[in-house]
Design goal:
alpha/beta; 543 residues; Rossmann fold; seven-stranded mixed beta sheet; 17 helices; 22 strands
Length: 543
């Protein structure tokens, strides 16, 4: 039967023609989800991704029989989008948007009290009923059809739990990501009640976090109404400091009942089995300490499993230094490689290009630079589709004699590559003058972090100017949409993760604040490396 969404759900995408709406709608359609229409004000009458576009949700309901909405609009307009869908008679509203002000959600919550619709989110990954409907940003390939119901605040933990369930030979009836904001629609208790009454759900997995009362309320409801089905519980954030906001806006440890220990105690008392988390490598941990003192961390255990052949690759959004150290010491280096490196994608007017090194080696030697270039060429050709990647040396000027003595030596070493174009400057990265920019990890990381900051800074500047503007709301909305679409190439989520080139395996590191979309794309980077036999081709190019 499933809960909330299924193959009969008729989906309308609000924010359909924007970059996020387009990307995820494509994924949903490809999965087989019944997307019937999209909504973008001012673009009604057009066709996008083979689906009609309407100006309003009410039109989509009237003309396309839409009964479920998924929202990909900017935070400042999301509350109005939710209420518009409710007013139009949509039965299920799934708000993916993060960063909606609490004051706006308070207004939404009050408005929905007079409606009969179901709200999921905001700031959530959505819902998936495997092999029927994916309404959100979840990576569909992780989920297999089965009889385990899954409810979670965290998108990432939802995917992890689903993956482990599937690896045990089981499957998912429906996975519901309720979101981690202080004010949300469907709660943990609501989802568990639905699963309890679902004939096709035999067991329930409940994933919660520190902060708030959702998990406690759910556990007490189970105790009061009878535990008709087995429930497994997990609470993330056990080591978080009291009173500090962690990850989700709703994860604020307040009183004694908000802690992980308190929640686990209540859950156990109510008949819910709780699984404790392993050791955690903190961002402040040194690489050596992480390996020696925390052998049960996910990084150490995951890389070891990879070494033992239990998996084809390992991805992590954790401590970069610890992951690099584990990759080097456990996996080892490829034959002929003196030092592994981090290759990072960087946007340009012609699509993504590579900067090497991006933080693994603060100082490099000529032979290392040459190997970085050769490895980068293999990656650029096989993964990025650049047939003859041009190599440039990032320097203070274009002339051959520019830079330090070390840079001159590196320049001479790179001449062995036929496609080496010489020195390039920072201004040449965005054009781009080369396809692979060689530098040390210090400069490369500075350039990387500068690029990451540009979208946020530009959005602030444009937002400030819009606040001073006397333009219409439609005009301001249009400007924000154009800005978001223009800055999309700078969004780390589109890349997901960076590969460690030169290690004897597949190891990919992602941003510490990786979203579900970023995690998905991080996994794709690893899969591409494996499927294209990158390491074998690197060895061939070096030797």
């Amino acid at each position: 039967m499933s809960i909330i969404v299924n193959k009969n759900s008729k989906i309308v995408v609000q924010g359909f023609t924007g970059s996020e709406g387009t990307f995820h709608a494509e994924q949903m359609i490809s999965y087989g989800t019944n997307v019937v229409a999209g909504v973008t004000p001012g673009k009604g009458g057009q066709t996008h991704l083979g689906k009609p576009v309407f100006n309003t949700v009410s039109e989509a309901v009237a003309k396309a029989n839409a009964n479920t909405s998924i929202i990909f609009v900017p935070a400042s307009f999301a509350a109005d989008a939710i209420m518009e869908a409710a007013e139009a008679g949509v039965q299920t509203i799934i708000a993916i948007t993060e960063g909606i002000p609490v004051s706006d959600m308070t207004r939404v919550s009050q408005y929905l009290q007079s409606k009969t619709c179901t709200l999921i989110g905001p700031n959530c990954p959505g819902i998936i009923t495997p092999e029927e409907a994916k309404v959100g940003i979840m990576p569909g390939f992780v989920f297999k059809k089965g009889r385990i119901g899954l409810v979670s605040k965290s998108g990432t933990l939802t995917y992890e739990a689903a993956d482990q369930i599937v690896k045990q030979g089981l499957g998912i009836s429906t996975a519901v990501g309720i979101g981690g904001d202080p004010i949300i629609g469907t709660t943990t208790k609501d989802a568990i009640e639905l699963f309890m009454n679902d004939d096709e759900t035999d067991c329930i997995v409940m994933i919660g976090e520190i902060g708030g009362q959702l998990e406690t309320d759910a556990a007490k409801w189970v105790a009061e109404n009878g535990n008709k089905k087995p429930i497994v519980g997990f609470i993330a954030g056990e080591t978080a400091p009291k009173g500090r906001t962690m990850g989700h806006a709703g994860a604020i440890v307040g009183g004694s009942e908000d802690t992980a220990e308190a929640k686990k105690k209540v859950m156990k008392e109510c008949g819910i089995h709780v699984v404790d988390s392993p050791e955690i490598v903190e961002m402040t941990d040194s690489a050596s300490a992480a390996l020696k003192q925390k052998p049960n961390s996910s990084i150490a255990k995951g890389i070891s499993m990879h070494k033992q052949g239990q998996c084809h690759g390992f991805v992590s959004a954790g401590n970069t230094g610890a992951l690099l150290a584990a990759s080097m010491f456990i996996l080892g280096k490829l034959e002929g490689i003196s030092r592994p490196t981090i290759a990072t994608y960087y946007p340009s007017l012609e699509g993504f290009r590579l900067i090497i090194d991006a933080g693994a080696n603060l100082e490099i030697k000529p032979d290392m630079a040459l190997q970085f270039a050769l490895m980068g060429q293999v990656y650029a050709k096989e993964i990025m589709g650049i047939e003859q990647p041009r190599v440039g040396l990032l320097n203070v000027g274009e002339e051959e004699g520019k830079g330090t003595e070390l840079l001159k030596e590196i320049h001479e070493a790179l001449k062995k590559i036929p496609s080496f174009i010489g020195n390039v400057e920072g201004r040449d990265i965005l054009i781009p003058k080369a396809d692979i920019f060689i530098t040390d990890g210090y400069i490369g990381n500075v350039v990387l972090k500068l690029g990451e900051s540009l979208p946020g800074i530009l959005k602030i500047l444009v937002g400030q100017r819009l606040q001073q503007s006397t333009g219409t709301p439609e005009m301001m909305s249009f400007v924000q949409q154009i800005l978001s679409e223009s800055l999309a190439p700078f969004d780390y989520e589109r890349v997901g993760g960076l590969p460690f080139l030169g290690v004897n395996g597949t190891s990919v590191v992602g941003h510490g604040g990786s979203s579900p979309t970023a995690i998905k794309n991080m996994i794709k980077v690893a899969m591409d490396c494996v499927e294209h036999s990158i390491n074998d081709k690197i060895i061939a190019s070096i030797n």
